[in-house]
Amino acid sequence: MNQSDYPLSEVPISARKGLLSTSAVLLGFTFFTATMWAGGSLGQAFSIGQLLWIILVGNLLLGVYAATLAYIACKSGLNSVLMGRFCFGEKGSKLSDFILGFTQIGWYAWGTATIALVLVRTTGMPEWLEIPLMVLFGFGFCVTAMVGYKGMDWLSRFAVPAMMLFILISLFTGIVDARGFAGLNQQTPTESMSVAAAITVIIGTFISGGTQATNWSRFAKTPKIAVIATLAAFFVGNGLMVLTGALGTMVYQQADIVDVLIAQGLVSIAVLMLFLNIWTTQDNTIYNFAVAGCNLLRTEKRRLVTVGGAATGTVLAIGGMYNLLIPFLVLLGTFIPPMGGVIMANFWLKHKGRYPALEFAQLPDFNRRGLAAYALGAGAAYFSPLLPPLVGVAVAAGSYAVLLRLNHATLSDNLPSIAKQ
């Protein structure tokens, strides 16, 4: 735990990781229960043939978005919140810190409550144990995040292969129980959903996570490794989660892999899957919060911020606030992707594919072009009836490109004075 993981600076070349390590951590992040629930809604609305190509298209779009940010992260050694200083300014970047950090602490509360409630329900424990279990898991799951990248790497190298095996066993059992693909083809949808809405659901499941996956892709040795690992996680891994939820709903009327495994009589595997699934996402989630918190407070004390975030998430879980937070967090998923659009445009158009060293960069308090482009992208995403996350990214990037060409006093950067520096 003597590693700081560079919360306020670039990751040096000496600390970079290979393909196996980067892929394991990112896959552990995308193996997420909530994604399977999204897949369950698709399984009720489409035939198996339509479902497969919708999952393919939706996750390909998601993977390309996340991989583009991964390339920038690896080239620069910076994560999204540190890139936010170039995009929004020294003080303006605190907006992105708050939005990204608050989203993650809400999801941490949800995960902490979920594992306690499901474990009590699954094993028949008394209900009074729910709160003690929330405290146990709330602080227990942050241990690997406190260690840092190495801790999450160690966990993921064991957990990801195990979860992949459990999922494949469940999928094979489900296909057999459904009498093969012929049996799946005979099932008729019970709900209605447009193709555009289905693709939006898939992209929306993890595009906010894709925006913050730069926390680990910046550790990749080469941009090629960063892109491949991110595609493996957000195209293949997330796609597998959506497919698992969809097939579980079609065959067993259960989207969650844990419920499906129980329905298949694999109770021991279900309990182990529950722990690994939640833990590998929870430690990534609280790590995201800590990174955003460090940039917000301008502190190197990442482990202290991690514990503070875990305590906050645990209190929210115990108070039942996670039930109220989920709709707001989903709404924030609309407002997070435009940040990625501004980052892309700022990196390639203003900085020509290379950021200056953050330590010596002369940055304004507020980058008005970046903030204006983000506002336009977020507004477009909120009001768009079609693919809001992608619309937000495209409008934010396009707006930044246009504003960059305009030379107007109201758009000029508000540079700090020499005294402030």
UniProtKB/TrEMBL annotation:
One of its GO terms (cellular component) is plasma membrane. The chain crosses the membrane at residues 20-39, 51-74, 95-119, 131-149, 158-175, 195-213, 225-248, 260-279, 304-322, 328-349, 370-403. It is a multi-pass membrane protein. The keyword Transmembrane helix applies. GO terms for molecular function: cytosine transmembrane transporter activity. Its main location: membrane. CDD domains: SLC-NCS1sbd_CobB-like. Pfam families: Transp_cyt_pur (PF02133). Keywords: Membrane, Transmembrane, Transmembrane helix. It is found in: Membrane. The keyword Cell inner membrane does not apply. Belongs to the purine-cytosine permease (2.A.39) family. This is Cytosine permease. It comes from Vreelandella nigrificans. The lineage of its organism: Bacteria, Pseudomonadati, Pseudomonadota, Gammaproteobacteria, Oceanospirillales.
